[in-house]
């Protein structure tokens, strides 16, 4: 068993619709092993690398097992961090979207405990939280686990690394023994095995270890780009390398549709392929790609299976695949027939770990590059164009054109042959923009902040009852930019200023401009360097590139959030 169609798993129509909502086409290997076992009622120890879909591996069967008529806590999922608790809750909520009345509650420290009391009183089916906060609720008797049927230890290795062993043991020790216990971890250790021995009942071991695979003939490159900037970055890289035919891979059907819409709107010859298309639609898309009428094919792994088209110069991994073998299959589509192709991968956050695993198991090197700037793209275009000019001169046969130039220069005494050449270039290449659609990745001006940060102005402040935490909360909540990456925040009477890392600035403006903070509609723009509550010295103006900054290293200038 390797990968399955979700249809064969005997899942409810509601759950299948939730899976459709997530855009998943088929299971990952760990899901193919774990879902049937959990549905059968077995305790399991699941081990697979980061990013292989372990959340849905337990989330899907949990949804099938919860009795929605009972308003009691039937499952707890223990996670190492609040971020993971929130992510897992979001994924289970989306997967469970069509289970009417389902209630999933993330609980973690740092969130007002009173709000959690209220939610708990109203009845919750699945609690997802950090061990500390769950213990806290247990000892306050605000969380009753007497009806508990499932306990999940998610990312067990990380929880143990963080010193949660005693808390976990306490929780498992005081919940009904007649429960199903599920443990997932990226790695295994004797400590985890001991824990499993003590609290799991005859567990099945579900383990997926990647095979060592080889790749050759493909130059592998990765770009570290925040999700919100990924579509723009893709356009830049396409413009820069200008591949004749390329495939963009997305992990989900939704992703395919979104990328195609975006590329088409920007004038690229792109079309999409995924499992929802019928045979004649597929044939039409493939015919377009074979003939070169479509230059960029956007596809899921399933849909791209069996595609055999010559001359694919580049493969883009819009997402890092959930399965190592997919990576190898994907990049194997380029660089055939003795030619080297290029494989580009976009990564952010956790995907860096997947990339590290891929390098390890394919024993290959994926080198990091900066996303080309607008200037780089222009340079590449003019180099290419002037290269063609050189070839044309070398090929000769320009007698007729030379005569025309001579006549023109004689007649128009004001113009030199240099100016004539420049005018022709401008007419042929345009005034010096890049191809449509990428110009709104702004190269931000200096706004008097520390290097790597951009200062944004927001038209709201104390007069609207806005405090620093509201600004930070709204930006972090709406854009997903972690609060710790947000720099200095100043709130004035009617306006506020916030510093964000350059590479996130576009995304923050796009998402927040026209959005609301505490019910007040706001505008967000880049602040001028002389604007602000505390005037700044204007530094010599400099153009900065989006991707040069490393926001992780930006120091925080604000005391606390
Ligand atoms: P892990 O817990 O193994 O590190 P996650 O459960 O966080 O991995 O999954 C990583 C990403 O893969 C998530 O974005 C998730 O939505 C996605 N994913 C999970 N299962 C599938 C699937 N069957 N097809 C496509 N994407 C999937
Ligand atoms: Mg996980």
Can you walk through the features of this model?
The chain is α/β, with parallel strands linked by helices and 561 residues long. It has 4 domains: 6-207, 3-Layer(aba) Sandwich (Rossmann fold); 218-372, Rossmann fold; 375-429, no CATH class; 453-526, 2-Layer Sandwich (Alpha-Beta Plaits). The chain is built from 20 helices and 20 strands. The protein has helices spanning 13-22, 29-39, 54-65, 82-95, 113-121, 131-139, 156-161, 165-173, 190-199, 230-241, 253-265, 279-291, 301-304, 324-331, 351-362, 374-395, 399-411, 417-429, 468-479, 502-512; strands at 44-47, 75-78, 104-107, 126-129, 150-153, 180-185, 204-207, 218-224, 245-249, 270-273, 296-299, 312-317, 341-347, 367-368, 453-458, 489-491, 496-501, 516-517, 520-521, 524-526. It has a 7-stranded parallel β-sheet with strand order 3-4-2-5-6-1-7, sandwiched between helices. Strands 10-11-9-12-13-8-14 form a 7-stranded parallel β-sheet, sandwiched between helices. The protein has a 4-stranded antiparallel β-sheet with strand order 16-17-15-20. Helix 12 (279-291) links the parallel strand 10 (270-273) and strand 11 (296-299). Helix 6 packs across helix 8, helix 10 packs parallel to helix 16 (374-395) and helix 19 (468-479) packs across helix 20 (502-512). The radius of gyration is 28 Å and the shape is globular. It binds adenosine-5'-diphosphate (ADP) and magnesium ion.
